[in-house]
């Protein structure tokens, strides 16, 4: 379940939560956001910034909330303790008094790698916020951490050889986390790691798909086998912390996910891959096991993200990480309330079926369908280009791939599975 047995962001019981960002052309109301969370039985959320209206709407729901401090606010809070105290009063203490279940504060986001000039301000800001929590008698109930990217490590593989780049600042962060009983927040994107690896690892490894023992990645220093890239990234963080002498701080995956759409240069940003990754993430977390080097510490994670943020700059994939559109319609079927249960199904397009090319259709008609989908239909067809991973398949399988990509996205806004009579719905997963 999205939120199984959950107590606190760094607690022993495993959970999957979601990140909520609002960089959208048309934002949903706070009431609509909370209604969606309740309908999907999502019990843990992380807000990228303190949204007063959303914090009010979350009151009396029991949903556990991590409130974000922006990178811009970090410098302000480091310089002016009174501003940090006022923020804690307005955005933490007051909502808690109104029965909003705030459990943690996330200070900045990937600040050490995206805004290194402000690195020296990070821990002072965290200390000032913590002092304000102590004054409000909330330091036991609300923990403070800071989400950091895996780019903070100079090496990520093998995990046992990982180390932090900015070790002096990171040491201060870890000292703070250890002294306050908090946890390390890691932004771990296997999508980016896979793309950057340029084929060194199999895509199944990045998608958290089951792999054979021969495909598992072995750490040559420890002999530990890694079935998923996510486990490897989290363990790299544990080893990097241990290298600095910190062995008792747990890791929470603050952001992870997979984009469902991308440009021509982003062939792995597809609906199928996004759905597969997030489904497998829920299954991975809900089994309750830790990483190979820390089996006793269940893996907790927040999916990036609840909504597509269509106002985000950058490539097409930057606006395509959400599991819902801003109007609350699902981008793809994802079982958020039954992870780990046998009845949960495969989680891959099963609710709406798959749109595939019919058998016996003439090649020229399939080509017409493909051309329409890749042109007027605005489908990401990079995977079936001559250098794409699906080009070597038959024309029918290429058509099925494109038809299904189009259908899974456009069925929510009037798209159908027809393609001039060359396509049909099936509930049997098509082979890739």
Automatic annotation (TrEMBL):
Catalytic activity: Hydrolysis of (1->3)-beta-D-glucosidic linkages in (1->3)-beta-D-glucans
Any one annotated GO CC term: plasma membrane
SMART domains for the chain: X8 (SM00768)
Localization, UniProt: Cell membrane
Family to which the UniProt record says this protein belongs: Belongs to the glycosyl hydrolase 17 family.
InterPro entries reported for this sequence: GH, Glyco_hydro_17, Glyco_hydro_17_plant, X8
Keywords recorded for this protein, A-Z: Disulfide bond, Glycoprotein, Glycosidase, GPI-anchor, Hydrolase, Lipoprotein, Membrane, Plant defense, Signal
Record's protein name: glucan endo-1,3-beta-D-glucosidase
GO biological process, one term: defense response
Taxonomy, superkingdom: Eukaryota
GO molecular function terms listed in the Swiss-Prot or TrEMBL record: glucan endo-1,3-beta-D-glucosidase activity
The EC number(s) this enzyme carries: 3.2.1.39
PANTHER family to which the protein is assigned, alphabetical: GLUCAN ENDO-1,3-BETA-GLUCOSIDASE BG1-RELATED-RELATED (PTHR32227)
Mode of membrane association: Lipid-anchor; GPI-anchor
Ranges where the X8 domain occurs: 353-431
